[in-house]
Design a protein that fits this description.
two-stranded parallel ribbon, alpha/beta, Rossmann fold, 34% helix, seven-stranded parallel β-sheet, 13 strands, UDP-galactose 4-epimerase, domain 1, single chain, 10 helices
């Protein structure tokens, strides 16, 4: 298959390109060359800013396009128009298109934000509404496209460091601060499962919109942390501290210091249905497998600074305050 990937050098894209090459696809990447341009030696990489169109590709034909890097609707529309002869278009969106998930078990039917058609760089506040507009831009031109809405993406290569923080911290052992409710549902789709399924969608021209979440079975926050501990074989023990305590100390569920923690009003975001995607071939792997592979990657290959999680010093301060409060 002749495959054009818009993006392709970071996390999901790295796994996707590797899998495409392993199965014999002819892959071309279009990106600005700003993120790890040496990620795929020997693969054709065409430099350009999609905001200016895809003219540097020279109007070539493709069997499929996988769009990993679309955030601004105008640029996405131009990309769709300029690849109109491609056999299929796969667009990576997000569950953040939903401003809320009113009840557990919802999927594609959860309410959508009003679309934000603004040009220019996205912000975290506008991320979901801008993705809604991008989805609409794809559907206008390619009603048969695959639109993929991942939740929290995890696995080796995760530059956001969210699930990785818990695996790394579990590997260090000792007492670990765990935030909120241990029974809170959690979801995380392994980037490799997501990438493999998107390649399948491109090849089989699977039409529709899909909530792409995992793992293979419902999981709680406590189960996720115990899975991380087991994957690293450590003596870690988890001390669960309340939402109220964390709020008193300046934390809320939007912080990067405590990834996966959600406020009670938001917890259905980690209890969404992946039924439609699974029926279309998505096969999330067990969380334990992802945890083991993340531990191996983190220990041997993890480049760059850590970007999520509490420092050990701050964690110790909070635990001391929690125990002092409990001992009054």
């Amino acid at each position: 298959m002749r495959l054009l990937v818009l993006g392709g050098t970071r996390f999901i894209g790295r796994h996707l390109v590797r899998m495409a090459l392993e199965r014999g696809d002819q892959v071309t990447l279009f990106n600005r060359g700003q993120t790890d341009p040496e990620a795929h030696p020997g693969v054709e990489q065409v430099r350009g800013d999609r905001a200016d169109g895809l003219g540097s590709l020279g109007g070539r034909a493709w069997d499929a396009v996988i769009d990993i890097s679309g955030y601004v609707a105008g640029a996405v529309r131009r990309s769709v128009e300029e690849t109109a002869e491609a056999g299929h278009y796969v667009f990576v969106s997000t569950i953040s298109v939903h401003p809320e998930v009113p009840r557990a078990g919802m999927g594609e039917d959860a309410p959508l934000s009003e679309p934000d058609w603004s040009e220019g760089p996205w912000t975290i506040e506008r991320y979901g509404p801008m993705k809604v507009a991008c989805e609409m831009a794809v559907r206008e031109r390619r009603p048969e496209a695959t639109i993929v809405r991942p939740g929290m993406v995890i696995g080796p290569g995760d530059y956001t460091d969210r699930f990785t923080y818990w695996v790394r911290r579990a590997s260090q052992g000792g007492e670990i601060l765990a935030p909120g409710d241990p029974a809170q549902p959690v979801q995380g789709i392994d980037a490799r499962d997501l990438a493999g399924w998107m390649l399948r969608a491109a090849t089989e021209r699977i039409a529709g919109t899909f909530t792409a979440v995992g793992p293979d079975r419902p999981t709680t926050f406590a189960e996720m942390l115990e899975t991380a501990r087991a994957a690293t074989g450590s003596d870690a023990r988890f001390t669960w501290v309340s939402d109220g305590f964390l709020g008193e100390h300046g934390y809320d569920a939007s912080t990067d210091d405590l990834p996966f923690w959600l406020s009670p009003a938001e917890r259905n975001f980690f209890a969404m249905s992946n039924r439609r995607a699974v029926e279309a071939g998505l096969a999330p792997r067990p969380l334990a497998e992802t945890a083991r592979d993340v531990a191996a990657w983190e220990g041997a290959y993890r480049p760059g600074p850590r970007v999520s999680g509490l420092s050990r010093e701050r964690e110790a301060e909070l635990l001391a305050a929690w125990h002092a409060r409990a001992g009054r």
